[in-house]
Design goal:
The structure is a homodimer.
Chain A: E1 7-20, E2 23-30, E3 40-41, E4 44-46, H1 53-65, E5 73-78, E6 89-97, E7 111-115, H2 126-143, E8 155-156, H3 157-168, H4 174-182, E9 187-194, E10 202-207
Parallel strand pairs in A: 1-6
Antiparallel strand pairs in A: 1-2, 1-4, 2-3, 2-7, 5-6, 8-10, 9-10
The first copy, chain A, binds a DNA duplex through α4.
Chain lengths: ~230, ~230
DNA sequence: ATTATACTTGTTGTTGTTACACTTTTTAAA
DNA sequence: TTTAAAAAGTGTAACAACAACAAGTATAAT
Protein backbone atom coordinates (compact mmCIF):
# COMPACT_ATOMS: atom_id res chain seq x y z
CA UNK A 1 0.00 0.00 0.00
CA UNK A 2 1.57 3.23 -1.11
CA UNK A 3 1.84 6.26 1.11
CA UNK A 4 2.05 4.04 4.12
CA UNK A 5 5.62 4.41 5.22
CA UNK A 6 5.79 3.44 8.78
CA UNK A 7 8.19 5.98 10.19
CA UNK A 8 7.44 9.51 11.22
CA UNK A 9 9.34 12.37 12.65
CA UNK A 10 8.63 12.85 16.31
CA UNK A 11 9.16 16.02 18.24
CA UNK A 12 8.47 17.22 21.72
CA UNK A 13 7.08 20.71 22.28
CA UNK A 14 6.94 22.32 25.67
CA UNK A 15 4.46 24.87 26.97
CA UNK A 16 6.01 26.76 29.86
CA UNK A 17 3.63 28.97 31.78
CA UNK A 18 4.34 31.52 34.42
CA UNK A 19 2.81 34.59 35.94
CA UNK A 20 4.71 37.74 35.25
CA UNK A 21 3.56 41.33 35.38
CA UNK A 22 0.12 40.29 36.55
CA UNK A 23 -0.43 38.17 33.47
CA UNK A 24 -0.26 34.52 32.56
CA UNK A 25 2.59 34.22 30.12
CA UNK A 26 4.09 31.52 27.93
CA UNK A 27 7.69 31.20 26.88
CA UNK A 28 8.13 31.35 23.12
CA UNK A 29 11.09 31.09 20.79
CA UNK A 30 11.36 32.72 17.42
CA UNK A 31 11.99 30.19 14.70
CA UNK A 32 15.08 30.78 12.60
CA UNK A 33 14.39 28.03 10.11
CA UNK A 34 11.71 27.28 7.63
CA UNK A 35 8.92 26.47 7.88
CA UNK A 36 7.43 29.35 9.80
CA UNK A 37 10.75 31.17 9.89
CA UNK A 38 10.54 34.24 12.13
CA UNK A 39 7.26 33.10 13.62
CA UNK A 40 6.97 32.45 17.34
CA UNK A 41 6.71 28.87 18.56
CA UNK A 42 6.79 26.96 21.79
CA UNK A 43 10.22 25.41 22.37
CA UNK A 44 10.56 22.02 20.76
CA UNK A 45 12.84 19.62 19.00
CA UNK A 46 13.27 16.15 17.63
CA UNK A 47 13.20 13.09 19.82
CA UNK A 48 16.40 11.10 19.57
CA UNK A 49 16.52 7.37 19.23
CA UNK A 50 18.27 6.92 22.53
CA UNK A 51 15.96 8.89 24.78
CA UNK A 52 12.44 8.51 26.00
CA UNK A 53 9.92 11.29 25.61
CA UNK A 54 10.46 12.83 29.04
CA UNK A 55 14.20 12.88 28.48
CA UNK A 56 13.75 14.46 25.09
CA UNK A 57 11.57 17.18 26.59
CA UNK A 58 14.11 17.90 29.30
CA UNK A 59 16.99 18.03 26.83
CA UNK A 60 15.19 20.18 24.31
CA UNK A 61 14.15 22.59 27.00
CA UNK A 62 17.70 22.91 28.25
CA UNK A 63 19.06 23.44 24.75
CA UNK A 64 16.52 26.03 23.72
CA UNK A 65 15.98 27.98 26.90
CA UNK A 66 18.66 26.89 29.36
CA UNK A 67 15.87 26.03 31.78
CA UNK A 68 16.50 22.98 33.93
CA UNK A 69 14.99 21.11 36.83
CA UNK A 70 11.38 21.89 36.31
CA UNK A 71 8.38 19.70 36.61
CA UNK A 72 7.24 18.63 33.17
CA UNK A 73 4.07 16.76 32.48
CA UNK A 74 3.05 15.10 29.26
CA UNK A 75 0.08 16.95 27.85
CA UNK A 76 -1.18 15.41 24.65
CA UNK A 77 0.14 14.10 21.37
CA UNK A 78 -0.79 16.00 18.25
CA UNK A 79 -0.56 14.05 15.04
CA UNK A 80 -2.57 15.69 12.33
CA UNK A 81 -0.94 14.85 8.98
CA UNK A 82 -1.16 18.49 7.95
CA UNK A 83 0.07 20.09 11.13
CA UNK A 84 3.50 20.42 9.58
CA UNK A 85 3.38 21.92 6.09
CA UNK A 86 6.32 19.98 4.73
CA UNK A 87 6.71 16.61 6.36
CA UNK A 88 4.84 14.34 8.71
CA UNK A 89 5.75 15.36 12.21
CA UNK A 90 3.94 14.06 15.24
CA UNK A 91 4.57 16.03 18.38
CA UNK A 92 4.24 15.00 21.96
CA UNK A 93 3.43 18.16 23.89
CA UNK A 94 4.54 18.76 27.46
CA UNK A 95 3.69 21.50 29.84
CA UNK A 96 5.16 23.08 32.93
CA UNK A 97 4.29 25.73 35.45
CA UNK A 98 7.24 27.69 36.72
CA UNK A 99 8.12 30.66 38.88
CA UNK A 100 9.84 32.98 36.50
CA UNK A 101 11.99 34.37 39.30
CA UNK A 102 13.46 30.92 39.85
CA UNK A 103 15.06 30.88 36.45
CA UNK A 104 17.53 33.14 34.84
CA UNK A 105 15.74 33.21 31.59
CA UNK A 106 17.59 35.68 29.48
CA UNK A 107 15.01 36.97 27.15
CA UNK A 108 16.09 38.24 23.79
CA UNK A 109 14.51 39.04 20.46
CA UNK A 110 14.39 35.28 19.94
CA UNK A 111 13.22 34.10 23.35
CA UNK A 112 10.50 35.90 25.21
CA UNK A 113 7.46 35.65 27.42
CA UNK A 114 4.13 36.36 25.77
CA UNK A 115 0.77 36.88 27.36
CA UNK A 116 -1.34 33.78 26.91
CA UNK A 117 -4.40 35.85 26.18
CA UNK A 118 -2.59 38.05 23.68
CA UNK A 119 -0.49 35.78 21.53
CA UNK A 120 1.35 36.68 18.34
CA UNK A 121 0.77 34.49 15.28
CA UNK A 122 2.25 31.12 16.08
CA UNK A 123 3.91 28.40 14.06
CA UNK A 124 2.24 25.07 13.36
CA UNK A 125 -0.65 24.17 15.65
CA UNK A 126 1.06 25.76 18.62
CA UNK A 127 -1.87 27.96 19.43
CA UNK A 128 -4.03 24.91 19.86
CA UNK A 129 -1.38 23.30 22.04
CA UNK A 130 -1.26 26.33 24.31
CA UNK A 131 -5.05 26.35 24.56
CA UNK A 132 -4.94 22.75 25.58
CA UNK A 133 -2.29 23.43 28.21
CA UNK A 134 -4.57 26.06 29.66
CA UNK A 135 -7.35 23.55 29.93
CA UNK A 136 -5.05 21.16 31.71
CA UNK A 137 -3.84 23.86 34.03
CA UNK A 138 -7.41 24.57 35.02
CA UNK A 139 -7.98 20.92 35.76
CA UNK A 140 -4.86 20.96 37.92
CA UNK A 141 -6.04 24.05 39.78
CA UNK A 142 -9.30 22.35 40.58
CA UNK A 143 -7.37 19.54 42.17
CA UNK A 144 -4.67 21.23 44.16
CA UNK A 145 -3.11 24.62 44.74
CA UNK A 146 -0.57 24.40 41.96
CA UNK A 147 -0.80 28.13 41.50
CA UNK A 148 2.03 28.38 43.99
CA UNK A 149 4.23 26.90 41.28
CA UNK A 150 3.55 29.97 39.20
CA UNK A 151 3.97 32.64 41.83
CA UNK A 152 7.12 33.85 43.47
CA UNK A 153 8.32 31.86 46.44
CA UNK A 154 6.82 34.43 48.76
CA UNK A 155 3.47 35.73 47.68
CA UNK A 156 0.44 37.54 48.98
CA UNK A 157 -2.97 35.98 49.01
CA UNK A 158 -4.18 38.67 46.67
CA UNK A 159 -1.50 37.68 44.17
CA UNK A 160 -2.58 34.09 44.47
CA UNK A 161 -6.22 34.98 44.01
CA UNK A 162 -5.37 37.01 40.95
CA UNK A 163 -3.52 34.03 39.54
CA UNK A 164 -6.56 31.85 40.05
CA UNK A 165 -8.85 34.41 38.53
CA UNK A 166 -6.62 34.80 35.54
CA UNK A 167 -6.39 31.11 34.84
CA UNK A 168 -9.98 30.23 35.61
CA UNK A 169 -11.21 33.39 33.91
CA UNK A 170 -13.73 34.12 36.59
CA UNK A 171 -13.97 36.31 39.65
CA UNK A 172 -13.67 34.73 43.07
CA UNK A 173 -14.99 35.96 46.38
CA UNK A 174 -12.11 37.29 48.42
CA UNK A 175 -13.23 36.00 51.79
CA UNK A 176 -14.16 32.56 50.57
CA UNK A 177 -10.94 32.26 48.64
CA UNK A 178 -8.80 33.15 51.64
CA UNK A 179 -10.77 30.89 53.93
CA UNK A 180 -10.13 27.99 51.66
CA UNK A 181 -6.52 28.77 50.96
CA UNK A 182 -5.52 29.02 54.59
CA UNK A 183 -6.78 25.52 55.27
CA UNK A 184 -4.45 24.18 52.59
CA UNK A 185 -1.74 21.99 53.98
CA UNK A 186 1.72 23.27 53.23
CA UNK A 187 0.83 26.95 53.26
CA UNK A 188 2.89 28.88 55.77
CA UNK A 189 2.11 32.39 56.95
CA UNK A 190 5.22 34.53 57.18
CA UNK A 191 5.93 37.50 59.40
CA UNK A 192 6.90 39.50 56.38
CA UNK A 193 4.90 41.94 54.36
CA UNK A 194 5.08 43.05 50.80
CA UNK A 195 5.49 46.75 50.40
CA UNK A 196 5.23 47.00 46.69
CA UNK A 197 2.07 49.03 46.69
CA UNK A 198 1.92 52.35 48.36
CA UNK A 199 -1.06 51.15 50.34
CA UNK A 200 -1.47 48.82 53.26
CA UNK A 201 1.20 46.10 52.99
CA UNK A 202 -0.01 42.56 52.48
CA UNK A 203 1.17 39.60 54.46
CA UNK A 204 3.42 37.18 52.63
CA UNK A 205 2.89 33.45 52.51
CA UNK A 206 4.94 30.58 51.21
CA UNK A 207 4.41 26.94 50.41
CA UNK A 208 6.41 24.27 52.10
CA UNK A 209 7.42 21.65 49.58
CA UNK A 210 4.31 19.55 49.47
CA UNK A 211 3.46 16.40 47.74
CA UNK A 212 1.08 17.11 44.94
CA UNK A 213 -2.25 15.33 44.89
CA UNK A 214 -2.35 15.65 48.63
CA UNK A 215 -5.35 15.34 50.86
CA UNK A 216 -7.13 18.45 49.74
CA UNK A 217 -8.51 17.05 46.60
CA UNK A 218 -10.65 19.74 45.08
CA UNK A 219 -9.24 23.11 45.54
CA UNK A 220 -11.32 25.32 43.35
CA UNK A 221 -14.68 23.84 42.72
CA UNK A 222 -15.87 23.35 39.22
CA UNK A 223 -18.45 25.83 38.16
CA UNK A 224 -21.86 24.39 37.70
CA UNK A 225 -22.30 26.21 34.46
CA UNK A 226 -25.29 25.11 32.45
CA UNK A 227 -23.41 22.77 30.17
CA UNK A 228 -22.14 25.50 27.96
CA UNK B 1 25.73 12.82 15.86
CA UNK B 2 25.29 9.11 15.43
CA UNK B 3 22.29 7.21 16.67
CA UNK B 4 20.16 10.25 16.18
CA UNK B 5 18.00 9.32 13.27
CA UNK B 6 14.96 11.45 13.38
CA UNK B 7 12.27 9.04 12.38
CA UNK B 8 10.54 6.51 14.56
CA UNK B 9 7.85 3.97 14.14
CA UNK B 10 4.57 5.11 15.63
CA UNK B 11 1.77 2.87 16.67
CA UNK B 12 -1.56 3.30 18.38
CA UNK B 13 -2.65 0.81 21.02
CA UNK B 14 -6.16 0.68 22.36
CA UNK B 15 -7.35 -0.38 25.78
CA UNK B 16 -10.98 -1.44 25.60
CA UNK B 17 -12.65 -2.00 28.93
CA UNK B 18 -16.00 -3.48 29.69
CA UNK B 19 -17.80 -5.19 32.51
CA UNK B 20 -18.64 -8.78 31.80
CA UNK B 21 -19.44 -11.59 34.19
CA UNK B 22 -19.20 -9.27 37.15
CA UNK B 23 -15.62 -8.35 36.35
CA UNK B 24 -13.81 -5.50 34.68
CA UNK B 25 -12.33 -6.94 31.51
CA UNK B 26 -10.02 -5.79 28.77
CA UNK B 27 -10.03 -6.93 25.16
CA UNK B 28 -6.76 -8.57 24.15
CA UNK B 29 -5.44 -10.06 20.94
CA UNK B 30 -2.91 -12.83 20.68
CA UNK B 31 0.11 -11.77 18.68
CA UNK B 32 0.94 -13.95 15.72
CA UNK B 33 4.21 -12.25 14.88
CA UNK B 34 7.47 -11.71 16.62
CA UNK B 35 8.32 -10.10 18.91
CA UNK B 36 6.16 -11.52 21.68
CA UNK B 37 4.60 -14.06 19.33
CA UNK B 38 1.72 -15.88 21.05
CA UNK B 39 1.65 -13.39 23.90
CA UNK B 40 -1.47 -11.35 24.57
CA UNK B 41 -1.46 -7.67 23.72
CA UNK B 42 -3.90 -4.81 23.51
CA UNK B 43 -5.02 -4.20 19.92
CA UNK B 44 -2.68 -1.90 18.07
CA UNK B 45 -1.04 -1.08 14.78
CA UNK B 46 1.06 1.36 12.86
CA UNK B 47 -0.02 4.89 12.18
CA UNK B 48 -0.16 5.65 8.49
CA UNK B 49 1.18 8.79 6.93
CA UNK B 50 -2.22 9.90 5.76
CA UNK B 51 -4.16 9.65 9.00
CA UNK B 52 -4.13 11.44 12.29
CA UNK B 53 -3.83 9.58 15.55
CA UNK B 54 -7.54 9.33 16.23
CA UNK B 55 -8.16 8.01 12.75
CA UNK B 56 -5.38 5.49 13.15
CA UNK B 57 -6.89 4.27 16.40
CA UNK B 58 -10.31 3.91 14.84
CA UNK B 59 -8.96 2.06 11.82
CA UNK B 60 -6.75 -0.28 13.81
CA UNK B 61 -9.57 -1.10 16.13
CA UNK B 62 -11.86 -1.93 13.23
CA UNK B 63 -9.21 -4.10 11.56
CA UNK B 64 -8.27 -6.04 14.64
CA UNK B 65 -11.57 -6.42 16.42
CA UNK B 66 -14.27 -5.32 14.02
CA UNK B 67 -15.43 -2.86 16.67
CA UNK B 68 -16.71 0.45 15.35
CA UNK B 69 -18.37 3.59 16.57
CA UNK B 70 -17.06 3.71 20.05
CA UNK B 71 -15.82 6.62 22.06
CA UNK B 72 -12.03 6.63 22.06
CA UNK B 73 -9.93 8.94 24.15
CA UNK B 74 -6.21 9.49 23.86
CA UNK B 75 -4.59 8.19 27.00
CA UNK B 76 -0.86 8.73 27.01
CA UNK B 77 2.11 8.30 24.73
CA UNK B 78 4.69 5.75 25.71
CA UNK B 79 8.12 6.22 24.21
CA UNK B 80 10.72 4.34 26.16
CA UNK B 81 13.52 3.37 23.77
CA UNK B 82 13.49 -0.15 25.13
CA UNK B 83 9.77 -0.75 25.19
CA UNK B 84 10.07 -2.59 21.89
CA UNK B 85 12.85 -5.17 21.94
CA UNK B 86 13.79 -4.81 18.29
CA UNK B 87 13.16 -1.34 16.97
CA UNK B 88 12.22 2.06 18.26
CA UNK B 89 8.45 2.19 18.45
CA UNK B 90 6.60 4.98 20.15
CA UNK B 91 2.98 4.24 20.88
CA UNK B 92 0.10 6.55 21.43
CA UNK B 93 -2.31 4.72 23.70
CA UNK B 94 -6.07 5.16 23.55
CA UNK B 95 -8.77 3.86 25.77
CA UNK B 96 -12.47 3.18 25.55
CA UNK B 97 -15.26 2.02 27.78
CA UNK B 98 -17.87 -0.08 26.04
CA UNK B 99 -20.93 -2.14 26.73
CA UNK B 100 -19.95 -5.58 25.61
CA UNK B 101 -23.55 -6.36 24.67
CA UNK B 102 -23.47 -3.52 22.15
CA UNK B 103 -20.84 -5.22 20.05
CA UNK B 104 -20.75 -8.52 18.38
CA UNK B 105 -17.26 -9.28 19.42
CA UNK B 106 -16.60 -12.77 18.27
CA UNK B 107 -14.06 -14.02 20.68
CA UNK B 108 -11.69 -16.71 19.56
CA UNK B 109 -8.41 -18.19 20.70
CA UNK B 110 -6.81 -15.02 19.33
CA UNK B 111 -9.25 -12.38 20.57
CA UNK B 112 -10.66 -12.51 24.05
CA UNK B 113 -11.72 -10.62 27.14
CA UNK B 114 -9.43 -10.88 30.12
CA UNK B 115 -10.03 -9.81 33.67
CA UNK B 116 -8.12 -6.63 34.36
CA UNK B 117 -7.13 -7.85 37.80
CA UNK B 118 -6.02 -11.22 36.50
CA UNK B 119 -4.04 -10.62 33.35
CA UNK B 120 -1.93 -13.12 31.47
CA UNK B 121 1.66 -12.16 30.62
CA UNK B 122 1.46 -9.29 28.16
CA UNK B 123 3.60 -8.11 25.28
CA UNK B 124 5.67 -4.94 25.46
CA UNK B 125 4.68 -2.48 28.18
CA UNK B 126 1.03 -3.25 27.72
CA UNK B 127 0.53 -4.09 31.36
CA UNK B 128 1.64 -0.58 32.27
CA UNK B 129 -0.68 0.87 29.65
CA UNK B 130 -3.64 -1.02 31.07
CA UNK B 131 -2.76 0.12 34.58
CA UNK B 132 -2.71 3.68 33.33
CA UNK B 133 -6.08 3.29 31.64
CA UNK B 134 -7.47 2.12 34.94
CA UNK B 135 -6.19 5.25 36.61
CA UNK B 136 -7.80 7.36 33.94
CA UNK B 137 -11.06 5.48 34.25
CA UNK B 138 -11.09 6.23 37.97
CA UNK B 139 -10.57 9.90 37.25
CA UNK B 140 -13.48 9.77 34.83
CA UNK B 141 -15.69 8.07 37.36
CA UNK B 142 -14.96 10.79 39.86
CA UNK B 143 -16.17 13.32 37.34
CA UNK B 144 -19.29 11.78 35.91
CA UNK B 145 -21.23 8.55 35.85
CA UNK B 146 -19.39 7.00 32.94
CA UNK B 147 -19.98 3.60 34.44
CA UNK B 148 -23.15 3.51 32.40
CA UNK B 149 -20.91 3.18 29.36
CA UNK B 150 -19.69 -0.11 30.73
CA UNK B 151 -22.97 -1.60 31.83
CA UNK B 152 -25.73 -2.94 29.69
CA UNK B 153 -28.24 -0.43 28.41
CA UNK B 154 -30.64 -1.42 31.16
CA UNK B 155 -29.02 -2.05 34.47
CA UNK B 156 -29.84 -2.32 38.15
CA UNK B 157 -28.43 0.04 40.69
CA UNK B 158 -26.68 -2.85 42.34
CA UNK B 159 -24.91 -3.65 39.10
CA UNK B 160 -23.86 -0.06 38.82
CA UNK B 161 -22.61 0.02 42.37
CA UNK B 162 -20.64 -3.16 41.78
CA UNK B 163 -19.06 -1.56 38.74
CA UNK B 164 -18.00 1.43 40.81
CA UNK B 165 -16.67 -0.75 43.57
CA UNK B 166 -14.72 -2.83 41.13
CA UNK B 167 -13.10 0.11 39.42
CA UNK B 168 -12.48 2.19 42.52
CA UNK B 169 -11.46 -0.87 44.49
CA UNK B 170 -13.39 0.15 47.54
CA UNK B 171 -16.73 -0.61 49.13
CA UNK B 172 -19.50 1.95 48.91
CA UNK B 173 -22.49 2.41 51.16
CA UNK B 174 -25.59 1.18 49.40
CA UNK B 175 -27.94 3.90 50.59
CA UNK B 176 -25.57 6.76 49.95
CA UNK B 177 -24.70 5.42 46.54
CA UNK B 178 -28.30 5.15 45.48
CA UNK B 179 -29.18 8.53 46.90
CA UNK B 180 -26.47 10.11 44.82
CA UNK B 181 -27.13 8.14 41.67
CA UNK B 182 -30.80 8.98 41.52
CA UNK B 183 -30.01 12.70 41.50
CA UNK B 184 -27.89 12.24 38.38
CA UNK B 185 -29.32 13.93 35.38
CA UNK B 186 -30.03 11.56 32.56
CA UNK B 187 -30.84 8.55 34.71
CA UNK B 188 -34.28 7.16 34.00
CA UNK B 189 -36.15 4.71 36.17
CA UNK B 190 -37.88 2.01 34.16
CA UNK B 191 -40.94 -0.03 35.00
CA UNK B 192 -39.04 -3.18 34.29
CA UNK B 193 -37.31 -5.51 36.63
CA UNK B 194 -34.40 -7.84 36.24
CA UNK B 195 -35.19 -11.41 37.08
CA UNK B 196 -31.79 -12.90 36.74
CA UNK B 197 -31.38 -13.84 40.33
CA UNK B 198 -33.79 -16.18 41.98
CA UNK B 199 -34.42 -13.57 44.65
CA UNK B 200 -36.31 -10.31 44.71
CA UNK B 201 -36.10 -8.74 41.24
CA UNK B 202 -34.34 -5.39 40.99
CA UNK B 203 -35.67 -2.35 39.20
CA UNK B 204 -33.95 -1.51 35.93
CA UNK B 205 -32.62 1.92 35.05
CA UNK B 206 -31.22 3.42 31.90
CA UNK B 207 -29.31 6.50 30.90
CA UNK B 208 -30.68 8.90 28.42
CA UNK B 209 -27.95 9.97 26.03
CA UNK B 210 -26.29 12.65 28.07
CA UNK B 211 -23.52 14.99 27.32
CA UNK B 212 -20.45 13.97 29.20
CA UNK B 213 -18.88 16.45 31.55
CA UNK B 214 -22.33 17.63 32.38
CA UNK B 215 -23.42 19.62 35.35
CA UNK B 216 -22.83 17.00 37.94
CA UNK B 217 -19.15 17.41 38.15
CA UNK B 218 -17.93 15.09 40.82
CA UNK B 219 -19.75 11.88 40.93
CA UNK B 220 -17.78 9.75 43.30
CA UNK B 221 -15.82 11.81 45.71
CA UNK B 222 -12.13 11.29 46.03
CA UNK B 223 -11.15 9.48 49.15
CA UNK B 224 -9.38 11.63 51.66
CA UNK B 225 -6.81 8.98 52.28
CA UNK B 226 -3.87 10.18 54.33
CA UNK B 227 -1.59 10.89 51.41
CA UNK B 228 -0.71 7.29 50.91
C1' DA C 1 -5.16 65.54 59.42
C1' DT C 2 -7.43 63.84 55.44
C1' DT C 3 -7.98 60.83 51.69
C1' DA C 4 -7.43 57.09 48.73
C1' DT C 5 -6.42 52.37 48.32
C1' DA C 6 -5.67 47.88 49.18
C1' DC C 7 -5.71 44.49 53.08
C1' DT C 8 -8.16 41.91 56.37
C1' DT C 9 -11.88 39.54 58.70
C1' DG C 10 -16.95 36.42 60.28
C1' DT C 11 -21.71 34.79 59.98
C1' DT C 12 -25.50 32.44 58.09
C1' DG C 13 -28.14 29.62 55.15
C1' DT C 14 -27.73 25.93 51.93
C1' DT C 15 -26.10 21.96 50.12
C1' DG C 16 -23.51 17.78 50.05
C1' DT C 17 -21.44 13.85 52.70
C1' DT C 18 -21.08 10.25 55.85
C1' DA C 19 -22.58 6.84 59.06
C1' DC C 20 -25.77 3.65 60.17
C1' DA C 21 -30.07 -0.90 60.40
C1' DC C 22 -34.31 -2.55 59.39
C1' DT C 23 -38.26 -3.95 56.22
C1' DT C 24 -39.85 -5.86 51.78
C1' DT C 25 -40.04 -8.96 48.01
C1' DT C 26 -39.16 -13.03 45.90
C1' DT C 27 -37.83 -18.07 45.24
C1' DA C 28 -36.82 -22.48 46.89
C1' DA C 29 -37.00 -25.85 50.19
C1' DA C 30 -39.14 -28.01 53.99
C1' DT D 1 -48.43 -23.29 53.15
C1' DT D 2 -45.03 -22.12 56.04
C1' DT D 3 -40.31 -21.02 56.52
C1' DA D 4 -35.70 -19.67 55.37
C1' DA D 5 -32.42 -17.45 52.54
C1' DA D 6 -30.97 -13.80 49.57
C1' DA D 7 -30.98 -9.58 47.59
C1' DA D 8 -33.70 -5.16 47.04
C1' DG D 9 -35.09 -1.24 48.94
C1' DT D 10 -35.51 2.79 52.16
C1' DG D 11 -34.60 7.57 56.03
C1' DT D 12 -32.44 10.41 59.39
C1' DA D 13 -29.18 12.99 61.86
C1' DA D 14 -24.68 14.93 62.54
C1' DC D 15 -21.07 17.09 60.15
C1' DA D 16 -18.37 19.38 56.51
C1' DA D 17 -18.06 22.23 52.55
C1' DC D 18 -19.75 26.04 50.00
C1' DA D 19 -21.85 30.57 48.59
C1' DA D 20 -23.34 34.97 49.57
C1' DC D 21 -22.51 38.98 51.70
C1' DA D 22 -20.18 44.31 54.16
C1' DA D 23 -17.51 46.78 57.39
C1' DG D 24 -13.22 48.06 59.65
C1' DT D 25 -7.84 48.61 59.34
C1' DA D 26 -3.20 49.86 57.89
C1' DT D 27 -0.37 52.55 54.98
C1' DA D 28 1.42 56.36 51.88
C1' DA D 29 0.59 60.48 49.59
C1' DT D 30 -1.30 64.86 49.76
Amino acid sequence: MFNEIKTHEITVDIVILTIKNDALQVLLVKRNNEPFKDKWAIPGGYVRMSENLDEAAIRVLKEKTDVENIYLEQLYTFGDPLRHPVSRVITCAYFALIRSEDFNIVTSPDLAWHKVFDLPPLAFDHKEIIQYSLKRTRERLEMCPVAYQLLNEKFTLTEMQKAYEMIMEKKLDKRNFRKKVITTEGLRELNEFSKTSSKRPARLYTFETIKLNSKRAHFIKKTTNPTS
